[in-house]
Amino acid sequence: MELVVTGIHIGHYGRDLQPSTTLASLCQTLLDSVPHVRFRLGSIEATEVDDRLLDLLVSSGGRLAPHLHMPLQSGADPVLRRMRRWHTREQYRVRALEIAERVSPLGLGADVITGFPGESPGDHEATRALIEELPFTYLHVFPFSPRRDTPAAELDDPVPQRVSGERAKELRMLAQEKGAAYRRRRAGSGATVVVEGEGGTGLTEDYLRVDVAEADRSAGALVRGTLLARGDQLY
Q1: Spatial distance between the Cα atoms of 12 and 142, rounded to a whole number of angstroms
Q2: Partners of 3 in the beta sheet?
Q3: Three-state secondary structure along 16-67?
Q4: 216: confidence class by pLDDT, cuts 50, 70, 90
Q5: Percent of residues, the chain, with pLDDT higher than 70
Q6: What is the pLDDT of residue 154?
């Protein structure tokens, strides 16, 4: 069985409790108290993956799934400032590389917004270059669309929708290439898969969706095996 620890700003978990605690402490308690279950973290900011949480990703034997979804939004500091994000390009880059150096295999995903007001061609190139450098295995890429009564809707220097769409398409193609390359590297290696329903698919610890042999299709079961390639798919 797999359970997902999710919520809004899960990296802030425990700060408002008395006594205060941390997400890493919660994960350690779950690992100690709930045997035979794999835990996976929901979306978490790169700057909130502290050293203790990283240690658990390394030492838990896969029970804390080696998969992080760390929102990026942009790889350009001017855009990050306009978005009021709490990390810089370099802070994100350094932490992602530190994590990748210690955790293997690693599923690494991010959200990216293209065409945020004021995003220049140079800003887009900085984002593309950062995505190229970091070991992402998938991305969720969205063109910016203004929402009424939000601060972003009032910003000047809008990017034409056509340009936002073209930039999003470029980053999606790059993400697909990186994901396919990662799947090829994983073929032939071991994985533990949680079976999804009765549909014959499952998720590996590093967040790869794979086909599952019919004999192993007990919903919710954790199945250990070797990943095999069939074209661009794994099973």
Answers
A1: 26
A2: 39
A3: CCCCCCCHHHHHHHHHHHCCCCEEEECCCCHHHCCHHHHHHHHHCCCCECCE
A4: low
A5: 98
A6: 77
* 233's tokens: 């798919």
Query: Both tokens of residue 27?
Result: 């994960």
Among the ranges given (1-10, 62-71, 153-162, 164-173), the one the predictor scored with the smallest mean pLDDT = 153-162
216 three-state secondary structure: helix
DSSP character at residue 142: E
| pTM (two decimals) | 0.93
In three-state secondary structure terms, 141 is strand
Tell me the CA end-to-end span of the chain in Å, nearest whole number: 19
List the one residue out of 94, 74, 53, 210 whose CA is nearest residue 144.
74
Q: Which residues of 108-138 are buried (b: 16+ CB within 10 A; e: fewer)?
A: bbbebbbbbbbbeeebbebbbebbeebbbbb
What are the backbone dihedrals phi and psi of residue 167, each rounded to the nearest 5 degrees, phi first? -65, -40
- C-beta neighbour count of 103 within 10 angstroms: 17
